[in-house]
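Subject: Interface between my chains keeps coming out wrong

I've been trying for a while to get a sensible model of this assembly. When I model each chain on its own everything looks fine, but I need the whole thing in one frame so I can look at the contacts. Pasting all components below, labels as-is. Any help appreciated, I'm running out of ideas.
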Amino acid sequence: MAAGKFSSLVHEKEGGAALVEILSVFDHSLFAEMILRSLMDSGIEKNHIIIFSLRQRPHETLSLDTLNHPDDTSLFDLGAIFATIFGVIGASIGFRLTWGPIIWGLIASAGGFLSGLAINYLFTNKQSRLLGNPSSNSPGVILIVQCRCDQQRTVEQLLWKNHTLGLTVIDG
Amino acid sequence: MARRYKAILNCFGTSQIHYRNPAVIAWWSAAFPGFGHMLLNMHLKGNILFLCEILFNVQSNLNLATVYTFTGEFDLAKNVLNTRLLMFYIPFYIFCIWDSYRSTIDLNKNFFLAEKEPFQMSVFDMSTVEVCYLDKRIPWVAGIWSLLLPGLGQLYTRRILTAFALLIWTLVITYNSQCLDGVHWLFAGNLEKARNVLNMEWLLFFPSLIFGAAFDAYSKTAEYNKLFDSEQKAYFQKEWQPANFHLSFTKRKGGQPW
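Reply #2:
Try treating it as a single job with all components included. I did that and got this:
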């Protein structure tokens, strides 16, 4: 029978239809759950669908020592803090200057925000900065559907309709 | 129900615990007493403290004295401070900073214990007053909305209680400081009138309010997005990974792929 991992023979099920596997990639979102419901509605059985969530690049594991210093600090932490400090000082000093507290407060806040961003950018570890999207801890999900040849068209259309990032068809 | 859990969702908002830097929370408590607690989702504590802060500050003219100090008029500063409530401000302020710092460390420890527990939150809550569901939102959009009017970004991200508190405080502070009057005169070109109409005591709350609200909206939106990912991952692992599923390119026992 099968010789090696990637068999190129098309296997037949009892019904007589050839089987394919469709592998597709999604972002974590409500669409990832909607596609599951749509696939079930179009007749694919639940034990012919599987979905895996991708893991991120591993950080150094958090122990009690590093508990209070998490790696993925937001880029805007320091910016917001500096913006507040400089805003208060700028507004106070601007009270006695011609332009008034509002304009000087805004200028000082903007300056503070930019310097906070700059300091954060220059002094954070390049590694932790490259760790990608601060608002996501999983790059996506991989969905694998096993279906008959004649269902392949329907499944592909459903996947594209639900915003898949890409798909591929693996012939049995 | 497990002994500790990580997140909860209902009509009043979504709450979760995760690792936070205690210095950042303590800093925000220093800028805006009570805000550190609101960042930790301790809304009752935070709002009570913030109410006290406004009362103490306004009654003792502390912001006005700050302005005079920064512009070098120390005599004016000394005269304008009202000693009726001033001394209480010192223990109150230090308590806010210390308590938020301590609470952050405690919550970090609690998260360390709760991290491996399975998720026990609902992703959808509908009652007669509100419909609430977990979904992804765009962080910088929430930040900008809260920058323009503190509280809007929080409404975008479903933090109803924080939004409510921030909107009310923004109303009070904007009205009393006559900030919008000042902006109106600025646009009309009358700088002198703009400066005279502003009430510095209330105006100095503004930077902390605006940037605190924007920071809260931005960072919480990013965190809720991560919560959505983790919850969906746990759901997929529980429900959608059938035990008898075999991929075509891995061998079953017996060597037959399907």
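Reply #3:
Confirming on my end. The helical segments of chain A are 30-41, 77-94, 100-123, 126-129, 152-161.
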